[in-house]
Amino acid sequence: MKAALLKGLNYFEIEEIEKPVPSDHEVLVKVKAAGICGSDIHKMQNEWKYELPMVTGHEFSGVIESIGTEVKKVSVGDRVAIAPLIPCHECTYCKSGKYQLCENYTMIGSHRYGGFEEYVTVPEENVINIGENISFEEAAMIEPLAVAAHGVMGLDPKLGDTVAVFGLGTIGILTVQWLRLTGVKKIIGIDIDPNKIKEAMKYGVTDTINSLEESLEDRIFELTDNKGVDIAIECAGSKITEEQCLLITRKGGLIGYQGIAYSDVLLHQKAFENIFRREYTIKGFWNSYSAPFPGKEWIHSAEFIEQGKINLKDLISHRYELNDIQKAFNLTVNREESYNKVMIFPEERKEEEK
Ligand SMILES: [Zn+2]
Ligand SMILES: [Zn+2]
């Protein structure tokens, strides 16, 4: 079978490798669609900490091709999405249902082969049955959708709240879509890319701010009767926006950090003092899991997609076949053009599979 082997920083080779065989509690998935994640791109730009060669890809979907002898919940032919975290189930965090904090986890696509190949074996408990109505590329986006859900569920916005979302990339837009479903009054989308700001209007953002072109604080206070937002959610992962959250949230407000800080975050005195002077509650969100594994984030994501309440299709900006994975990564790693979700397909795509 064909696999895209990562052999160095942003260096892939397509090779024929042996088709894996599922162990007793595993299933063999024929991959149908696999997305490139922002974290994949970051790893290609900086450092790859895991073994090489590796087959990356942790956002994928497919059809179950065969099952191990002990597999009970799914059958051959089932259409599935894959939750990529394999928790140890033994550490304190796993035992309390906080799988995202596991001390000894395995990640599909980093520690073991992921979705950028034709067939992958995964544990039975990592598959989510998607039924017949969700397309494979939508199912490949359940992972980022579950990440966004984890943050929004943890912040638990109230009817009528005003929320600022920093960063209108995939996670930001998915966060906006969850927020819209919670009944918040205003969703203020903040970014520095005019294309992303324009796109965000389609998904339920009520106001937008281009923080390169206008004063963020002035505009926020204008939009909130000089109070600041009830909730700020950071999905950009920039040291500037990590600090800005602390400047534009109202007294007693809530701040959620979800974007990875890829450099040191230095706080000015005012930003830091606001934490206690304004009595902020600050929450961090990592990954997308809760008990029972993989968690409500995953189950709700699949159900809401099926009900047509979440729009994923328009977020896919580029589609490539597996043979062209290098082109796909070059596009994202070198920022050759504006992109959102980039999808990889291991087999030649027929029109009806879109
Ligand atoms: Zn991801
Ligand atoms: Zn654990």
UniProtKB/TrEMBL annotation:
Domain Enoyl reductase (ER), residue spans: 4-344
Gene3D superfamilies listed in its UniProt record: Medium-chain alcohol dehydrogenases, catalytic domain (3.90.180.10), NAD(P)-binding Rossmann-like Domain (3.40.50.720)
Highest taxon of the lineage: Bacteria
Keywords from the UniProt entry: Metal-binding, Oxidoreductase, Zinc
A molecular function GO annotation: oxidoreductase activity
Claim: Oxidoreductase is one of the keywords in the record: yes
Necessary cofactors: Zn(2+)
The family this protein is said to belong to: Belongs to the zinc-containing alcohol dehydrogenase family.
Protein name: Galactitol-1-phosphate 5-dehydrogenase
Protein species of origin: Enterococcus dongliensis
